Amino acid sequence: MNLLILKSDQISGTEAIVTGRQLEHLLTVHQATVGASVRVGELNGLMGSGIITKIDNHSASLDVLLDTPPPAPLPLTLIMAMPRPKMLRRTLQSMTSMGVKSLHLINSVRVEKSFWQTPFLSESALEKELLLGLEQSRDTLLPKVHLHKLFKPFVEDKLGEIIADSYALVAHPTGVVPCPVAINKPTTLIVGPEGGFIPYEIDKLEEVGVEAVTMGARILRVETAVPALISRLFPS
After folding, report:
1. Domain co-membership, 38 together with 84
2. Do 209 and 176 meet the contact criterion of CB atoms below 8 Å apart?
3. In angstroms, rounded to a whole number, what is the distance separating the alpha carbons of residues 15 and 1?
4. Which whole number is the average pLDDT over 50-67?
5. Model confidence pLDDT, tens digit, residues 96-150
6. How confident is the model at residue 5 (pLDDT cuts 50, 70, 90)?
7. What is the C-alpha to C-alpha distance for residues 103 and 90, in angstroms, rounded to an integer?
8. Which of 22, 49, 68 is the last residue before a domain boundary?
9. How far apart are CA 15 and CA 8, in angstroms?
10. Which of 173, 170, 182 is nearest to 220 (CA)?
11. Of 177, 183, 153, which Cα lies nearest the Cα of 76?
12. DSSP letters along 60-76, please?
């Protein structure tokens, strides 16, 4: 945990109260004691520092000063075919730590129906993984996740509005156009399921103005492809 993220109900004036997982981390990992300083941030707000004024096995009290804005988000909207639940968790953390603030999970022929039944799609479960990504990267702005269980209606009715005024790309294993590098402009990136979208789905995406690009001959797992593509499009 590189940043202790506080929700608004944990903060009263300049005092913050920490319990649960965050307290356990302070005690076991940081081995924090009274007087120790830790990096803190308010969820969707400013970052700063906190001085521990009291700590025991039940709670910790911090005197906090929040005066620093979080890192600027990437100008990127990520659209991803619903992956396997375990892969989803890892991808949520990595894309959040890299600065993605808008994610659309969509369906595809190669997405198993059972994937949509996972409890990892509950609001609380999604928030847990997103918070882990924010803590890792020292950020406070929580990404928004949108679920679309039907591919064709999403493409025909919603995708055009999403990609408006952005560079729209779909990563496709059999594409011939190399993925661009360091574009640094508003972008919509679409990543398919394992093995990629079927030809019909690629055709539908191209009909609304999405360009198919490739990272090369190797087919990567989604959890590897997403950070690799983001790093290529927006190198630090």
Report:
1. no
2. no
3. 20
4. 96
5. 999 999 999 999 999 999 999 999 999 999 999 999 999 999 999 999 999 999 9
6. very high
7. 14
8. 68
9. 11
10. 173
11. 183
12. EEEEEEEEEPPPPPPSE
Same domain, residue pair 110 and 181: yes
91, 178: one domain: yes
State the total domains in the chain: 2
Q: Which amino acid is at 83?
A: P
**How many whole angstroms separate alpha carbon 193 and alpha carbon 173?**
11
Specify the DSSP class assigned to residue 13: T
40, containing H or E segment: strand 37-42
Domain that holds residue 43: 4-68
Residues 48 and 152 in one domain: no
Same domain, 115 and 212: yes
SS3 105: strand
Distance CA 184, CA 138 (A): 21
Q: Which residue has the tokens 């103005």?
A: 209
pLDDT at 198: 95
Residues 28 and 143 in one domain: no
